[in-house]
UniProtKB/TrEMBL annotation:
Species: Novosphingobium album (ex Liu et al. 2023)
Keyword Oxidoreductase: yes
Origin superkingdom: Bacteria
Secretion signal, residue range per the UniProt entry: 1-22
The protein's required cofactors: pyrroloquinoline quinone
Name the UniProt record assigns to this protein: PQQ-binding-like beta-propeller repeat protein
Length: 626
């Protein structure tokens, strides 16, 4: 059974690597176990081959438990695999291996000797005028959703790309992320620079004209959130703006935007599985941080008592990182019947957030429970008071949704009874005005159901099924709104579950007031002969009043006419690129939260999503009209 699911992956391997929690295995023991199936690389790295075959192949060769396919691991550097086993998401399992065994399995999986990447070209650092930030260029956008309402919309004038010149777009430069198989951090623009995080944990400030590096900051783990810049006034010579982001180990950061110097770093949640996947939101002098986790995957580990993570929202002083308030979204877990598991648990917040400035509310989307009992705020849109974190209103799309990764293992003893359907929100809600002049909160979820709520009360105005939905179907990362239209991308990738509905990958435009369909654009069928290619759109999108920018899981970047759904321009990013920093790079699937964004005549695009069964890549592309 294929489990081609979107998820947080590395801790999933705990289900199959449970023996590593025991006493460390010796090299001699590994070599004595002649398990079949070792690849041709076994001769070069025999110890690594045995570690992989004995403890890892059960997932990576079958796709079980959401593990990424072996071909995706082969696109990683040995240093990245080694880091995952030592300081990253797999450190609990890797800690039982000797250092030699970790090195060897990293080399075996990548097919490259440790240290080989030391020959990579040094970072292409900017010099002279290219190294200086322009104080006359304040941040172009407020955050991940491009504005505080999370609309993913910019004006045609600001974009500088329109129906007249879209056909003239040409690649200006490409930047390769070293040692990466995915590019999913939403870039921020300001000061004449592009600020972006990376799979390798490096955050870069790149010169917009040339792609040279103004500064780079090494975070503890992958930075998949977008970068948020604090605003400044054009020409303010005293401006000291900050750049905010979160990492894969649950750390929130503030660094100086013009130097990359660390100002503060906060562990946002002490739970060992806590991560930050949603881009923080800056409003006035407060940074709002959403907490997600990898514990739904750890639940698959034999003997693990599931589950203890509690989703929460954290408000921090933007200048100091001091906590102002925290809102827990689920009660403290306690032992349940027979002590076999803990509950309630879960409710991660891993999507974008919107700020309703008129009503002083923060609008978030939640995930499901990891264990029973289920709770009220699962799979919900929730409006919180900006000053206190108190719940003002909530709308629950799916009730009774309890699920964890143990539900897809051969021995699902930690899977909740009547589990699923795992239809939570990975897409941030948007605050948008309809053509009737009223404010609505709009969104779509993995269920493939779009909807509109009254912004003041949370009352449902309409719902509309657009896709089949599924654990990996429906809408994943980003809707967009413009001029009374709601634009919804649909993935509907297969997830191995039975579903009576047919998949409907593509893009839909709806009237915000009524939910009436304005147009539909089915996903082109171009995947024949392209390994790991999928039709459909699971990544974030962006719009202007004229254009829709959408990257697809098939590797194509397409620009649509936002009024008709007609494709005006497209380019295939699944190819090799010559990069300004000399790093070998190629594009792939475009998924995750990094929407293509247009600003002042440039289109900035991230390509590559080597996650589960999607096409890997490691490139940032900048296009301009000729």
């Amino acid at each position: 059974m294929a489990f081609a699911l979107f998820a947080l992956v590395f801790l999933v391997l705990a289900a199959w690597m449970a023996p590593l929690r025991a006493a460390p295995v010796s090299t001699e023991d590994l070599l004595a176990d002649k398990t079949p199936g070792v690849t041709a690389q076994a001769a070069q790295f025999p110890i690594g081959a045995e570690v992989y075959t004995r403890y890892c192949a059960a997932c990576h060769e079958t796709g079980a438990g959401r593990a990424p396919a072996r071909i995706i691991l082969s696109n990683m550097t040995p240093e990245m695999i080694h880091a995952a086993l030592t300081t990253g998401a797999m450190q609990a399992q890797g800690g039982a291996l000797s250092e030699e065994q970790k090195v060897q399995v990293s080399q075996h999986l990548s097919g490259i000797a440790m240290g080989s990447r030391a020959s990579l070209p040094p970072a292409a650092m900017c010099t002279g005028a290219r190294a200086r930030f322009d104080i006359n260029q304040p941040p172009a956008f407020a955050g991940w959703g491009l504005d505080h309402a999370d609309t993913h919309s910019v004006t045609s004038a600001q974009a500088g790309i329109n129906r007249a010149n879209v056909g003239k777009l040409k690649l200006k430069w490409a930047f390769g992320f070293p040692g990466a198989t995915r590019a999913r951090s939403q870039p921020a623009l300001g000061g004449g620079a592009i600020f972006v995080g990376s799979h390798g944990g490096m955050v870069y400030a790149l010169d917009r004209e040339t792609g040279c590096v103004r500064w780079q900051f090494d975070a503890t783990a992958e930075v998949r959130t977008g970068i948020v810049l604090s605003p400044w006034r054009a020409g303010d010579t005293g401006a000291r703006p900050l750049a905010f982001f979160g990492d894969w180990q649950g750390n929130a950061y503030a660094v100086e935007a013009f130097t990359g110097k660390l100002v503060w770093k906060v562990r946002a949640d002490q739970h060992p599985a806590a991560v930050i996947t949603a881009t923080p939101v800056l409003w006035q002098d407060t940074l709002y941080v959403a907490i997600s986790s990898l514990e739904e995957a750890a639940a698959a580990t034999p003997g693990y008592v599931c589950c203890t993570f509690r989703g929460s929202m954290l408000a921090l002083d933007a200048r100091t990182g001091a906590e102002r308030w925290r809102k827990w979204l689920v009660d403290q877990p306690v032992p349940q019947a027979g002590g076999k598991h803990m509950g309630p648990s879960g409710l991660p917040v891993w999507a974008g957030m919107a700020v309703d400035t008129a009503r002083q509310r923060l609008i978030i989307g939640t995930g499901g429970n990891y264990s029973r009992p289920t709770t009220r705020l699962t799979d919900s849109i929730v409006a919180l008071d900006l000053a206190t974190g108190d719940v003002v209103w909530d709308f629950q799309l799916i009730k009774d949704d309890a699920w964890n990764v143990d539900c897809v293992t051969p021995d699902p003893d930690q899977c909740p009874v009547d589990a699923g359907p795992d239809y939570n929100f990975g897409t941030g809600a948007a605050l948008a005005r309809g053509k009737d002049g009223r404010d609505y909160v709009v969104n779509s979820s993995k269920a493939g159901i779009a909807f509109a709520l009254d912004a003041a009360t949370g009352a449902v105005k309409w719902t509309e099924r657009l896709g089949r939905g599924g654990m990996a179907g429906g809408t994943h990362f980003g809707i967009a709104t413009v001029d009374g239209r709601l634009i919804v991308p649909i993935s509907d990738m297969p997830d191995g579950t039975k579903n009576p509905l047919e998949p409907r990958p593509g893009i839909h435009a709806l009237d915000i007031v009524t939910g009436t369909s304005l147009w539909q654009a089915p996903a082109p069928q171009v995947c024949e002969g392209r390994p790991f290619c999928l039709p459909g759109y699971s990544g974030a999108i962006s719009v202007t009043p004229e254009l829709l920018f959408a990257g697809s899981d098939d590797g194509f970047l397409r620009i649509y006419d936002v009024a008709t759904g007609k494709v005006l321009w497209e380019t295939d990013t699944m190819r090799d690129f010559a990069t300004v920093n000399g790093v070998a790079a190629k594009g792939g699937a475009m998924s995750g939260g990094a929407a293509p964004i247009a600003d002042h005549g440039q289109l900035v695009v991230s390509s590559g999503y080597g996650f589960v069964t999607k096409m890997p890549g490691n490139v940032l592309l900048v296009f301009e009209p000729e």
